[in-house]
Design goal:
Blueprint lengths: L10 H11 L4 H8 L3 H14 L5 H10 L6
């Protein structure tokens, strides 16, 4: 089922979810992609909301299940 425009994950949200799934902290993600830590937190929170996940871990699980993130 395709996501509507309001719930589609941005490339940056996907990138942050991917790095989170690989065990990086917010600080590690920020360093890896050259943005500030609060910006990482914002991208992950937005992704969590769009995926209707109860936690960051749940967002990662949903992203893996939907094929957005591959380990």
């Amino acid at each position: 089922m395709p996501a509507d425009n309001n719930s589609a994950l941005s490339p940056r949200e996907l990138q942050c979810l991917d790095l989170l799934a690989r065990g990086h902290s917010n600080e590690g993600i920020a360093k890896s992609i050259g943005i500030k830590t609060p910006t990482v937190a914002m991208h992950l929170a937005n992704a969590r909301n769009k995926l209707k996940a109860g936690s960051r871990e749940h967002a990662v699980a949903i992203a893996i299940t939907k094929g957005f993130v591959r380990l």
